[in-house]
Design a protein that fits this description.
- The chain has 3 domains: about 180 residues, Rossmann fold (3-Layer(aba) Sandwich); about 190 residues, Rossmann fold, CATH 3.40.50.620; about 100 residues, GMP Synthetase, Chain A, domain 3.
- Helices cover about 35% and strands about 20% of the residues.
- It has 14 helices and 20 strands.
- The strands form 4 sheets. Strands 2-1-3-4-11-10-9-6-7 form a 9-stranded mixed β-sheet.
- About 5% of the residues have low confidence.
- The structure holds xanthosine-5'-monophosphate.
Length: about 500
């Protein structure tokens, strides 16, 4: 399949460039800036993009690409710092502008024959630094300018090298995807072959070849990633796949029933259901430290897994729902041979099981996984469901886990979710739940004084869970949630709303 390669010079937007190229239906991979030309030549990309980055091209030790890349005859697009790299390499010079441009700037297009094709005479673009090419490198001409920069975009048509000072990958640049599409499809000649239907077909074929007659074990949680892995593998190898769902007893209300129904009735996938609630809770008894809880849960997961593997095996492969950002995250710092993160649930599996790892989603971003899932018949309701932590309610019940606290967290969370759905807020927020700890407060139920539990409601908005803000829910919605919790959940007397953002707080209380 035709592809574009993005070399990452450290910009926070490098991933976005990759995603935008894929949005233009061209497959794209992100590699470290110093990937040797030999490696790139073997990948045979149609074009190469240099990302932005925080460095100055004149600084000592500034990151530079392998010089042989310029002799490969491949089109190159430099963005921001990548643009400076090009200018610098071909004998031009870059200078800090007297009046620096940050943020939105009006770009006037001087030549819209290739890179700016179909973009008219001007667009608003997003600048994030104040350098500009002062002396154009030889063979380059100006393609666009702004009020402060006479060379905001330059190109050398003969060599097909282009440099732009602004960021086409961010939404603030109008029709930036069109520019990236022009580079990928028009200038580099990459065929638009990347879409999720073709991904499914290719992956199914690859999995069949790789697995042969072997058997694959997949852990499923009912979440989007593991469900998609299961659906994809089921399509590829059917009965050679065994999915296992371990119920640790700390799930959302009725979740275990829903997962079993989803797999058996809706997706038609055979599921091994393990009711391990008693074993998990016995090991967690009296434990209040959050990290200890996580460790115990991870360890018990591994134990349950080994039992399943022995009973239903032998298996040669273990399926994991690793996504592209995880592959990149672990690969960039360690060079091009990507090291893969171990799944938190099954990371502790003993080596003697000798399971090889299969990761059918390792080239996908989350939004692409959602599309694949939809195409494979995963119901919409699951696609829209909030993320749920692997250790489940163990991190939402503060302090030791007791049957009462677990029940209160389950019932109150269900109320929070239901009310947000009814009010049209559920799809707009990142996560929403109720947590419970050991704080108690007096309430009056009928004529009786009850010393019950304080329930904490938490609703947050976030893009990637790295930062989050509490959602400004309408008072009447909060009132409804609070009333329902104190009326319907036995032992809950007070309701509080968590108004701490992340940072300094985290999304989960433990
Ligand atoms: P925090 O609480 O760190 O959570 O702000 C960030 C995101 O990660 C989820 N989370 C976990 N997920 N195992 C998981 O699989 C865990 O131990 C865990 N702890 C937090 C949390 O739900 C949020 O989306």
């Amino acid at each position: 399949m035709d592809k574009i390669v993005v070399l990452d010079f450290g910009s926070q937007y490098s991933h976005l460039i990759c995603r935008r190229i894929r949005e233009a239906n061209v497959y794209c991979e992100l590699l470290p800036y110093d990937t040797p030309a030999k490696v790139i030549r073997e990948m045979n990309p149609k074009g190469i993009i240099f990302s932005g980055g925080p460095a100055s091209v004149y600084a000592k030790g500034a990151p530079k690409p392998d010089k042989k890349l310029f002799e490969m005859g491949k089109p190159i697009l430099g963005i921001c710092y990548g643009h400076q790299v090009l200018v610098n390499n071909f004998g031009g010079s870059v200078r800090r502008q007297a009046s620096r441009e940050y943020g939105r700037a009006g770009l006037k297009i001087d030549d819209n024959s290739d890179l700016f094709k179909d973009l008219g005479t001007g667009i608003n673009c997003w600048m994030s630094h104040g350098d500009a090419a002062e002396k154009l490198p030889e063979g380059f001409q100006v393609l666009a300018h702004t009020d402060n920069s006479s060379s905001a975009a330059i190109g050398n048509r003969e060599k097909k090298f282009y440099g732009i000072q602004f960021h086409p990958e961010v939404v603030h640049t109008e029709r930036g995807v069109q520019l990236l599409k022009n580079f990928a499809q028009e200038i580099s000649g990459a065929k638009p072959e990347w879409d999720m239907q073709s991904f499914i077909e290719t992956t199914v074929k690859e999995v069949r070849e790789k697995v042969g007659k072997d058997h694959v074990l997949a852990a499923v949680s009912g979440g989007i990633d593991s469900t998609t892995v299961a659906a994809l593998l089921n399509k590829a190898i059917g009965k050679q796949l065994s999915c296992v769902f371990i119920n640790h007893g700390l799930l959302r209300q009725d979740e275990e029933k829903e997962v079993v129904k989803l797999f058996k009735d809706h997706l038609g996938i055979n599921l091994i259901y393990v009711d391990a609630e008693k074993r998990f809770l016995a090991r967690l008894k009296g434990v209040s430290d959050p990290e200890k809880k996580r460790k115990i849960i991870g360890d018990q997961f591994a134990k349950e897994f080994v039992t399943v593997a022995k009973k239903h095996g032998p298996f040669q492969w273990l399926a994991q729902g690793t996504l592209y950002p995880d592959v990149i995250e672990s690969g960039v710092s360690k060079g091009p041979a990507a090291v893969i993160k171990t799944h938190h649930n099954v990371g502790g599996l003993p080596k003697w099981l000798k399971l090889k790892i299969i990761e059918p989603l390792r080239y996908l971003y989350k939004d692409e996984v959602r599309k694949v899932a939809g195409l494979l018949g995963v119901p919409d309701e699951l696609l829209k469901r909030h993320p749920f932590p692997g250790p489940g309610l163990a991190v939402r019940v503060i302090g030791v886990l007791t049957p009462d606290k677990i029940r209160i967290a389950k019932q109150a969370s269900k109320i929070v979710e239901d009310e947000l759905k009814a009010a049209g807020f559920y799809d707009k927020v990142w996560q929403a739940y109720a947590a419970v700890g050991d704080d108690r407060a007096v309430g009056v139920l009928g004529d009786e004084r009850v010393y019950g539990h304080v329930v904490m409601v938490r609703v947050v908005e976030s893009i990637d869970a790295m930062t989050a803000d509490w959602t400004r829910l309408p008072y009447d919605l909060l009132e409804k949630i609070s009333n329902r919790i104190t009326n319907e959940v036995d032992g809950a007397t007070w309701v509080t709303y968590a108004v701490s953002s992340k940072p300094p707080a985290t999304i989960e209380p433990q």
